[in-house]
Amino acid sequence: WVFGEVCNMINKKYNEFLPSMQSAEDLVSQVDSLSSNIDLLKSRIENEVTQQRLGNLFHTLYLFYLTCIELFQFDRAIKDYSTALLEKKYVAAARHLEKARSSLKMLESRKGFELKVLKALGTELTVQTQNMLYHLGEEWRQMVLWKLPPSKEISSAETVMQTELHLRTMPLKEDQIAGPPVASVLQAFAVLGELHTRLKLFGQLLLKYILKPLISYPSLRPLLEEQPDTVILHFESAEPNLEHPSPMEVFGKITLVLEVLHKHLLNVSLDECGENDKDSRVGLAEMLGDMVWEEVSGCLIQECLVYSIPANSSKLEQYVEVIKSTEEFEKSLKNMGFLKGDATDLLKYARNVNSHFANKKCQDVIVAARKLMTSEIHNTVKITPDSSVAIPKLPDPGAGDNLKMQKASKILHNELINLENETKLSQQTFSLPTCHISVSVEKLMELAYHTLVEATTSTDQCCIQLFYCVRNIFHLFYDVVPIYHKENLQKLPQLAAIHHNNCMYIAHHLLTLGHQFRYCLTNILYDGAATFVDLVPGFRRLGLECFLAQMRVQKGELLERLSSARNFSNMDNEENYSAAKKAARQVLHQLKRLGKVWQDVLPVNIYCKAMGTLLNTALSEIINRITALEDISAEDADRLHSLCRIMLEEGPLVFTPLLEENKNKKYQEEVPVYVQKWMMFKELMIILQANLQEIVDRWADGKGPLAAEFSPTEVKSLIRALFQNTERRAAALAKIK
């Protein structure tokens, strides 16, 4: 046991304790090495911190140094500026100001190093800049002096006459001290960034008081007055030859003004950036041109070139002079430096004359057409089958096409020569019947024909525009006339008839209008497009609806007059008889008045149909009222017969379609043709005076004239009303079946 304990102790000492001791000693050695490294690192860090502090101190001292330099440069620039300003060296003064501004910006940009003095420096710089601009403004006003009219609005040429522009030139006397040249003042403005503002204001005044008035008022002429040290530009008034001046005349005026400005003011090259760089220099004339040319060219187009566009294609060749003068005008402006680059909108507008001609022509045609449509309808002209629209001779189709047409017509003639009918149609078969139409509509049709003739000699594009312009004329008529003249067409029967004729006249011409010009228009319109036939039904319907509406009004008035006849009952009462007779007279009076109003206005066939329809309305109403009576005494029958005789005798007299009375008899004898109830009315008169046997005889077992007009029921009703209930009446009634 003791030996075991000894062995155990020895084992613990040598096998377990000694290795642990060795590990601890190794760890102590590593800790000593780390401690020495830490001391070395600490030493290095302390050295670097010392150097950084020295660097920060050096940087701060350097910033102080730069700030002092900038402050010195600012102060020096302000002093140099003051000296240059006193000597009127404006460009140098402006550049010194810009140097001071640059120094101030550098000072303000240093963050963490703000100075209280910067605010005072900024205020001083602003004051000196405004002082500089004041002196430059005074110099500018001495070089360029405006004398403007008291009124700010340009309302007349007389107002513009008060405008004067004074431009200072170099003094002629040796003892006079020359002021700073224009270039010096303007370059100083450029350095300070104020040139664009100053030039823009000058350009606005130039536009408003000189350039635009010269374009708008033909009577104004620019006048140049030269004095020893000044050139004065003002106006004189001359009587204009034309309402709108020619472009050549206006171009001459504008060129004269710009030449004066170029010679005494604008012939200067400036550096917009304020630096002496030849590549960045820009002509003052070019700068002004960029500001005003768009408005000047627009005004020239709207106030001048628009009115120079020819009114017809025959004068298009003369427009070459306008194009040439426009080219020369732009060339002179480019030589003076006002313009740069290629052709401007002004020249493009002048060269595009064909399109503008077509637009202007179409606009003029539509305006003229609308004026005709809104003129009075009652001013009329008589149209006969021999009437035709006077138009120039149309140009022949192409030679090749013409030759083909001739050959084709010969072949067709040879093939059909044996098929010719011996009975030939009259030359007036498809002619419009004699009637009256509005003078304005005749002129409207002539306008359409002449516009199409113009289209035949125009370019393809212009031809198409003019063709559709003519179509637009008729669309406009369809929309405008019924609305514009609506009240008169409803109230006045004559105007309704004239409008009916107008529509039929237009429709008649539209049938063949396209065919007449088909071979003379551009090939684009050749294949069926050049037609107006599609408009014909609309115009016929337009005229017919208007006239039928007037017919309904007249029918209503006739029925209203007959309503006062007290149903034609109890005619033995004198008061009732007088009322019925008065109603009949009023109906005849209305029909006679209409007959006179429509006389020689409507075509004869339309006139007779219209009057026949209205007379038929009156007779139908009388027949219906009489056949509705349940009891008619002998005296009633006599008086009803006398009333009917008035209508029978005087009714035909309302048919007076022609002015010559002897020619109207033919139509008065043909009343049964136009009045459907005429024979029925005559049979009614016979019944009112006939006995039972005569009535039965006229019935003739349903084959007589009475049976042709009345039904058995109507005849029986009349017999019961006229005759008392007897065996003879019963026998007669039995035969009516």
Please render the helix and strand layout as text.
Blueprint: H1 2-86, H2 90-109, H3 117-143, E1 144-147, H4 157-160, E2 164-168, H5 182-191, H6 195-216, E3 220-226, E4 230-237, H7 247-266, E5 269-271, E6 281-283, H8 284-308, H9 320-336, H10 345-351, H11 353-373, E7 380-383, H12 399-416, E8 435-438, H13 439-456, H14 460-484, H15 486-491, H16 493-517, H17 536-562, H18 574-598, H19 604-627, H20 634-650, H21 661-669, H22 671-674, H23 678-689, H24 692-699, H25 705-709, H26 712-722, H27 727-735
Antiparallel strand pairs: 1-2, 2-4, 3-4, 5-6, 7-8
Protein name: Centromere/kinetochore protein zw10 homolog
Keywords: Acetylation, Cell cycle, Cell division, Centromere, Chromosome, Coiled coil, Cytoplasm, Cytoskeleton, Endoplasmic reticulum, ER-Golgi transport, Kinetochore, Membrane, Mitosis, Phosphoprotein, Protein transport, Transport
Family: Belongs to the ZW10 family.
Helix content bin = 55-70%
Proportion in β-strands: 5-15%
Task: Count the E strands.
Answer: 8
Tell me the quaternary state. Answer: single chain
Features:
mainly alpha; 4-stranded antiparallel β-sheet; two-stranded antiparallel sheet; disordered N terminus
